[in-house]
Amino acid sequence: MEELKLRYYPDPILRKKAKPVWLRNGKPDPSILRMLAKLKEACREYDGVGLAAQQVGLVLPIIVAGEKQADGRYKLVGVVNPKVVEVDEETYV
After folding, report:
1. Is the pLDDT of residue 36 over 70?
2. pTM (predicted TM-score)
3. Of 15, 32, 33, 88, which is least surrounded by CB within 10 A?
4. Which CATH architecture has domain 12-80?
5. How far apart are CA 17 and CA 15, in angstroms?
């Protein structure tokens, strides 16, 4: 799988709004599933806990997030067309 390069502020792609990805019967196209796999691979490679498609130069509404387990493996979940449905003023650290 080709390596994805991280983008950093002030790269303008980080501010672009992605259009929703079309789903068929609630499932993403195989190309989107391949992109999720690439994002998961990049997240592991960079030892991260989350990554959005824009952070690797792709204007797609796709993210992966999760955590590194005690045994060193990652448990990552991919999300297509994520939405923020509620914002709370509290900050959790």
Report:
1. yes
2. 0.78
3. 88
4. Alpha-Beta Complex (3.90)
5. 6
